[in-house]
Specification:
Blueprint (H helix, E strand, L loop, with lengths): L25 H18 L10 H14 L8 E3 L4 E3 L1 E2 L2 E2 L10 E4 L4 E4 L10 E12 L5 E9 L13 E11 L6 E7 L4 E10 L5 E4 L5 E2 L5 E2 L3 E10 L8 E12 L1
Parallel strand pairs: 13-14
Antiparallel strand pairs: 1-2, 3-4, 5-6, 7-16, 8-15, 9-12, 9-16, 10-11, 10-15
């Protein structure tokens, strides 16, 4: 009985037959027959495929494997299943996580993410709603200034670590004592007042009022970060009558980085 394919046969499992010395019995022939059948089962039907021989087929397969093989050397690392670029032209790459707007630069030792000297940096911005005195004698809010605002360029944190701050400022007064004046930043696109931007004022002297830092997001009442949104500054009063006025001299949305 052949040992193939579990192991390669030896002179014990397939003994040598000597001419005119070893009697040829059925066992001798059957061992050879068993070995041949075992080999045929391993190779399958027409193992050469469309090629002239198995050797020709294996040569073609070897060439395909060799020409498409990933060699994890030089600028490549990691594993065969998950290769990783660890260098460029033989020079190493830093594994530091890049920050927004950084580029890959060579510092003389290693490729690493950094800012270039000519790279633009997002700066602060004042978005003016009104400039110049606007008055309201009604308790119905009047739109006195409007702007489309796109917060997309103003990312939460710059690459150098500075954090975005968004606030509303209004310069307001009333025309006489006993008057309650109000100003408010209103999100017209979503028909909702921006949270934290309703100002009450009673002074007859011009005063600048500022909101706390505003929430930027996609919820109602936020300064929206998910689309271009139209805002307007509203002004009204709720006491006395006649010629009494709520007055707004200027209003702006300020975006800064600190």
């Amino acid at each position: 009985m052949t040992s193939y394919p579990a192991q390669i046969d030896t002179n014990v499992t397939l003994p040598i037959v000597l001419d005119n010395s070893t009697p040829v019995s059925g066992d001798t022939v059957n061992r050879l027959r068993t070995a041949i059948i075992a080999i045929e089962r391993e190779l399958g039907v027409k193992p050469s495929g469309p090629y002239a021989s198995i050797r020709n087929r294996l040569d073609v397969i070897e060439n395909i494997i060799t020409s498409n093989m990933i060699s994890l050397a030089g600028d490549l690392g990691g594993t065969v299943s998950v290769p990783l670029v660890i260098g460029i032209r033989g020079r190493p790459i830093s594994n530091a996580t890049p920050l927004l707007n950084q580029t890959l630069t060579w510092d003389g030792i290693i490729w690493k993410p950094s800012y270039t000297s000519t790279q633009p940096v997002i700066t602060s911005a004042d978005i003016a709603f009104i400039s110049g005195a606007q008055l309201s004698s009604s308790n119905t809010p009047s739109a006195i200034g409007g702007r489309n605002v796109d917060m997309t360029p103003f990312i939460p944190v710059l690459g150098d670590g500075r954090i975005r701050s968004v606030r509303v400022y209004v310069d307001v007064e009333v025309s006489g004592t006993g008057i309650d004046g109000y100003a408010q930043l209103y999100d017209v696109t979503h028909d909702v007042a921006v949270t934290g931007t309703t100002f009450r004022f009673t002074s007859v002297d011009v005063a600048e009022l500022a909101s706390a830092e505003l929430t930027v997001g996609s919820d109602a009442g936020n300064i929206r970060s998910d689309e271009v949104t139209y805002y307007e500054l509203r002004l009204w009063k709720v006491s006395l009558s006649g010629s009494d006025r709520s007055i707004c001299h200027s209003a702006r949305l300020t975006i800064s980085y600190d």
